[in-house]
Design brief:
A hairpin with a 4-residue loop joins strand 9 and strand 10. About 50% of the residues are buried. Helix 2 crosses helix 9 and helix 3 packs parallel to helix 4. It is built from 13 helices and 15 strands. By secondary structure, the protein is of the alpha/beta class. The radius of gyration is 22 Å and the shape is globular. The protein has 2 domains: about 130 residues, Aspartate Aminotransferase, domain 1; about 260 residues, Aspartate Aminotransferase, domain 2, CATH 3.40.640.10. The protein has a 7-stranded mixed sheet, sandwiched between helices. A 4-stranded antiparallel sheet has the order 11-12-15-14, with helices on one face. The structure holds pyridoxal-5'-phosphate. Pyridoxal-5'-phosphate binds next to helix 3.
């Protein structure tokens, strides 16, 4: 039974107080709990100033709130705060690595290896890097259960020229939890740097970056109950210190003259311009919100909801669920196709009943191509969901079946 089942967590989320909403799209963007909204309001109402630049009280308080958020976010994943960089989102974090580390370290004859499960934000930047530098672009494939083929990884690494492996921790389109620790170990043994896209992992499974050993780990704030406009890149100190800046401008320099520019220390070197101050503060509050519940309890709750959903979907004859059917191996989502109805029709009919799910290619077209579909429908879960939400979802799917026969 779910450990959070009796906790009325939905009341923490103002938007969920709207009548008749069953929100099952947290993998796209999570709802925002009141403490996160309060933290951002507090910054604007009581401590509004810029960070790192001025000495008056408001600015000093803003800097303290901003850097305090960085400290708590870094501690949440067991990584040093000065190696934790604020970006706009996960996409920008991954592009930062591709432009800064990639352009300095990847060249003709090298291979960049990504996977068939990736969100486009962990696929397109590497494709662009390879096109620009003349490196080879390779993709590790999945089996029929959307599980990566690690013997294929061994074979690709054995070729000896893999410079970088880019892999998602949890797939947003199939739900697969990838064995990233094993992948990192194999890649490191072959001399490759590893970039992990943790956007879907951070909100739902415990992540200890100190133990994991990834070289770069990127994620996005708005899926962890935080605001939009803030993402995070954790990087290994030696790599971050060697890398050239990504964007140039204010704050990222130590000194500027017409003859010479010296870069600032990390993380400032990668945070050009005025920071996303309230968003970072909001993300700090989101980490506090999650830590207050406990990420293990969240995982247990969502795993229960996911396996309940898989059981309920198995009652419907014309539904095919993507990804591993074992809830242990998947994140809290169920992406599926329905023989009788197009994914967009499914989402539209469910939406008209207040059941919010996503339909489309989920920015994972290589995976859609693997399974010969243009799109799927996807329900995804968060701390506030209950089995009653799953029942409402399945009832609405039954209505779709009645409409489409
Ligand atoms: C696995 C994964 N990676 C990356 C992203 C990109 O996140 P953002 O658009 O916030 O950069 C998403 C968003 O859907 C995602 O699910």
């Amino acid at each position: 039974m779910s450990t959070l089942a009796d906790t009325p967590l939905a009341t923490d989320f103002p938007c969920l107080q709207r009548e008749g909403i069953v929100y099952l799209d947290s993998a796209a963007t999570s709802q925002t709990p009141q403490p996160v909204i309060d933290a951002m309001d507090d910054y604007y109402e009581a401590h509004r100033g810029t960070v790192h630049r001025s000495v008056y009280a408001l600015a000093a308080e803003a800097t303290e709130l901003f850097e305090g958020a960085r400290d708590r976010i870094a501690a949440f994943v067991n990584w040093p705060a000065n190696c934790t960089i604020f970006t706009k989102n996960a996409t920008e974090a991954l592009n930062l690595v591709a432009y800064s580390w990639g352009r300095a370290n990847v060249g003709p004859g090298d291979t960049v290896l990504t996977t068939q499960l990736e969100h486009h934000s962990n696929f397109v930047p590497w494709y662009m890097l390879c096109k620009e530098t003349g490196a080879n672009f390779e993709m590790l494939e999945v089996d029929d259960d959307s599980i990566l083929q690690l013997d294929e990884l061994d074979a690709l690494l054995a070729k000896g020229n893999v410079k970088l492996v880019a892999v998602g921790h949890v797939s947003n389109a199939a739900g697969t939890i990838n064995p990233v620790a094993e992948i990192i170990e194999k890649a490191h043994a072959a001399g490759a740097v590893v970039v992990v896209d943790g956007s879907q992992a951070i909100p739902q499974i415990p992540v200890d970056l100190g133990a994991l050993g990834a070289d770069f780990y990127a994620w996005t704030g708005h899926k962890l109950y935080g605001p939009t406009g803030v993402g995070v890149l954790h990087g290994r100190k030696e790599l971050l210190e060697e890398m050239p800046p990504f964007l140039g401008g204010g704050h990222m320099i130590a000194s500027v003259s017409v003859d010479e520019i010296r870069w600032g220390q990390i993380p400032a070197k990668f945070e050009a311009g005025t920071s996303n101050i309230s968003e970072a503060i909001g993300l700090g509050a989101a980490v506090d919100f999650v830590s207050g519940i406990g990420i293990e309890a969240i995982r247990a709750h969502e795993r229960d909801l996911c396996s309940y959903t898989l059981d309920r979907l198995a009652e419907l004859p014309d539904i095919t669920v993507m990804g591993p059917l074992d809830a242990e191996r998947r994140g809290a989502l169920a992406a599926f196709t329905m023989e009788t109805a197009h994914p967009h029709d499914v989402a539209e009919i469910l939406g008209s009943r207040g059941v919010c799910i996503r339909a489309g290619h989920h920015c994972a077209q290589p995976l859609m191509q693997r399974f010969g579909v243009a799109a799927t429908s996807r329900a995804s879960f968060a701390v506030h969901n209950t089995r009653a939400d799953v029942d409402a979802f399945v009832d609405a799917l039954n209505d779709v079946r009645k409409i489409f026969g």
